[in-house]
């Protein structure tokens, strides 16, 4: 499972400028409306740098999404060796995820990409792998460790349990926010995360 983690590395200055400029442009104009030339001008970099670091505009989007997750430390650096530490790690991951989803930027990005992804399969794949897929892989690995250690008693696969966990965390609260019915889906991310973990795993 270690190969599925997303270790942080120090971004170069051109990479940082490209990500920051892309984040702003995507939110103002939408992904499909931003050209490589426009992004390079805003980031003050050459097209060579853009292709060197990100390959294409879909690669830029993946970096923007990953960067948001890294800011909120959406990763699991080690697998807990005690049961209390395991449940704390799972609840803590949920809290960080829901705190991230409370951000207006994430809601806007989610809405935009759900609209554009239907006509752009590579975009849909990149968004899923670096957003939803990233969280699913992290939680699956953690739950698999919990099963191996005997902390998790449920017999379903770690993959299925991770799916249930993320679905419970987000639930209809995030659907309402995506539809614009509420501005902040999770009023108390830590409490909601803990409640969902206890409900799913009967702790």
Structural overview:
Helix 1 packs across helix 4 and helix 6 packs antiparallel against helix 7 (121-130). The longest helix is centred in the last third of the chain and has 21 residues, at 158-178. By secondary structure, this protein is an all-alpha fold. It has helices at residues 13-29, 36-43, 47-54, 57-71, 83-101, 104-117, 121-130, 132-149, 158-178, 189-201. The chain contains 10 helices and no strands. The protein is globular, with a radius of gyration of 18 Å. The two termini are 25 Å apart.
Distinct helical segment count: 10
The low-confidence runs, each spanning 5 or more residues with pLDDT under 50, are: 1-7
Total DSSP E strands:
0
N-to-C order of helices and strands: HHHHHHHHHH
Helix content: over 70%
End-to-end separation in angstroms reads 25 Å
Tell me about the largest β-sheet.
none
Radius of gyration: 18 Å
Instruction: State mean pLDDT (0 to 100 scale).
Output: 88
